[in-house]
Amino acid sequence: MNVLKLAVVFLLAGPALAADRALVFTKASGYEHSIVVNKNKPLSIAEQRLKEMLEARGFIVEATKDGTVFDGDLTRFKMFVFFTHGDLFEAGKDGQPPMTPNGKEALLKAVAAGTPFVGLHSACMAFVRKDGPLDPYLAMVGGEFQAHTWTQDGTIVVVPPALPGLEKLPGPVTVREEWTKFRNLDPNIRVILALGTKNMDSVKGKAYQDLPFYPVAWVKMHGKGRVFYNSMGQEQPVWDTELFKVTMEAGWTGHWVRQARRRRRICCTQSPSRRSGNRAALSPVFGRGNLLGTRFWLASLA
Asked: Rounded CA gap, 72 and 68, in Å?
């Protein structure tokens, strides 16, 4: 086997590339979810679980609540993972330094330049504004927190065409979680999991029943960067479900956020569809129906 063939085999074989470093950021400037509280331990439950997941894929993991990390060299990170809450410019209850405006701008530029971003649960609650335009950070995430209702059982369905990796899941799965209602959803998100609302409690589930299926997880582009958001993760038992594990695997390490990086290392040219914009380039994954708008697309599942 010549050197060129050996190099290609090496690039295709491993799920992660050597020395890839992921930043797990769990600052809570507002409400601090119990799953991200350290409780006199080096890592919170969420940080430890994320560390295990990422290390299993070959990442070096740096977990922090220190917002000044974004004032440093962000090029050393190959993925950003957020489980955050509130105005991250404020110190908050965790006692760690807040993010700076320059640090926030550096984050958005890094994602737009191609570094993947993963948001969990309350990542859509950072920089929420009562009035005025949508914050650029939330525009990058793809949606903004509007409300929660009671923690309750919800029926989750995989939205067709399934994101590669999610075809492993069986039919609808029932999970107990604190579900999130969104506003300012980006019409270009590709919803990969949806909450069936038909059988939800008439009181506890009323907030979600404006659509027969409501977004739970999605993927999207931000410039050249791939974004994956999963609203689940508040309830600790959820982390042990096959649904959560498979969704995380499909979303960040297997078939979505790392897909572009592997392709760039193997190829040196762009396909013609790349020159026609993100939608055309991603049509095999996103599916044509998504181009018609999120509300119509979800309603069409009914």
From this structure: 7
What angle do helix axes 3-13 and 259-266 make, rounded to 10 degrees?
180
**Which strands make up the sheet holding 79-82, listed edge to edge?**
60-64, 21-25, 79-82, 117-120, 225-230, 213-222, 190-196, 152-158, 173-177
User: Strand, coil or helix: what is 14?
Assistant: coil
Q: How far apart are CA 107 and CA 289, in angstroms?
A: 31
Is the Cβ–Cβ distance between 15 and 253 less than 8 Å?
yes
Write down the pTM of the prediction: 0.80
**Fold entry, domain 3-144+184-193+215-282:** Rossmann fold (3.40.50)
Cα separation of 117 and 121, whole Å?
Answer: 14
DSSP codes of every residue in 53-109: HHHHTT-EEEEE--GGGGGS-GGG-SEEEE--BB-TTS--TT-PPPPPHHHHHHHHH
CA 148 – CA 235 distance, rounded (Å): 14
Q: Contact 80/110 with Cβ under 8 angstroms?
A: yes
Q: Return the structure tokens found at 131.
A: 């009035």
Least confident of 69-73, 98-102, 223-227, 271-275: 271-275
* Helical (H) or strand (E) element with 154: strand 152-158
Distance of alpha carbon 202 from alpha carbon 228, whole angstroms: 31
Spell out the domain ranges in the chain.
3-144+184-193+215-282
Beta bridge partners of 81: 24, 118
Q: CA 192, CA 194: separation in Å to the nearest integer?
A: 7
Is residue 158 classed as helix, strand or coil in its secondary structure? Answer: strand
Ranked by mean pLDDT, which of 233-247, 259-273, 274-288 comes out on top?
Answer: 233-247
Specify the pairing of strand 144-148 against strand 79-82: unpaired
75-79, 101-105, 147-151, 265-269: least confident range:
265-269
